């Protein structure tokens, strides 16, 4: 774990470094509403193995999971607030460590944050089942975006096609795909325990879709971050 300097002190984060001499491109990895857990750290490790300096900030560092999740989710929907200051602090830390280009990748709530952050100094963005912002005009001038959705995600019906069309109309370089057999949370391992049986919006991991999305993301990042 590392400490990330922010305006009101420091927040926790997980830093994964590639082997060998740098500099490397960077990736800020944004967790979902469940928080910074083993699976998100594993994704940061996987980015590092692919040659990226990966930093996953704990956006819930300041308080309890429920209150923090609510606050960050509201920031995501309103496209403003302290969560974006924390994300920018993570980007700056990677830049300070020598990353000439920095991308952002997020999951669920983090995917929504990544979509908003695409117009905020990042060089590429990857959104896994990211919630769309209320004001789509923020995509004007956004960096290249790769986005992945599940057709069985009842919380984001039609989001993939809506996002794809909006980015196309704005001239934003994009790769948007909806996976027919996947739902919300398909790219991370289940962490809800018994709750996963009743939370239909999060049917859990779908390995085939997750691996295809990973290939698309790393190819896309390879084109825009190296």
UniProtKB/TrEMBL annotation:
Entry's Gene Ontology molecular function annotations: hydrolase activity
InterPro entries reported for this sequence: AB_hydrolase_fold (IPR029058), Dienelactn_hydro (IPR002925), Dienelactone_hydrolase-like (IPR051049)
Residues covered by the Dienelactone hydrolase domain: 11-224
Domain of life: Bacteria
Pfam families: DLH (PF01738)
UniProt signal peptide: none
PANTHER family: ALPHA_BETA-HYDROLASES SUPERFAMILY PROTEIN, CARBOXYMETHYLENEBUTENOLIDASE-RELATED
Protein name: Carboxymethylenebutenolidase
Species the sequence originates in: Amycolatopsis xylanica
């Amino acid at each position: 774990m590392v400490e990330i300097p922010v305006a009101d002190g420091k927040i926790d984060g997980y830093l994964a470094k590639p082997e060998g001499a740098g500099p490397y491109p960077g990736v800020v990895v944004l967790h979902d509403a469940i928080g910074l857990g083993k699976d998100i750290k594993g994704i940061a490790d996987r980015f590092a193995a692919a040659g990226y300096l990966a930093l996953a900030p704990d956006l819930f560092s300041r308080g309890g999971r429920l209150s923090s999740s609510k606050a960050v989710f509201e920031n995501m929907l309103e496209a403003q607030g302290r969560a974006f200051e924390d994300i920018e602090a993570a980007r700056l830390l990677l830049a300070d460590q020598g990353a000439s280009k920095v991308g952002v990748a997020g999951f669920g709530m983090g995917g929504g944050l990544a979509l908003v952050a695409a117009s905020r100094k990042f060089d590429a963005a990857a959104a896994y089942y990211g919630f769309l912002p209320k004001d789509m005009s923020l995509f004007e001038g956004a960096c290249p975006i790769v986005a992945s959705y599940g057709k069985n995600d009842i919380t984001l019906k039609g989001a993939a096609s809506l996002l794809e069309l909006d980015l196309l109309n704005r001239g934003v370089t994009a790769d948007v795909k909806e996976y027919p057999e996947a739902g919300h949370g398909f790219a991370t391992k289940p962490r809800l325990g018994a709750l996963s049986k009743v939370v239909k919006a999060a049917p859990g991991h779908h390995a085939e879709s997750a691996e295809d999305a990973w290939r698309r993301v790393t190819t896309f990042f390879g084109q825009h971050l190296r």
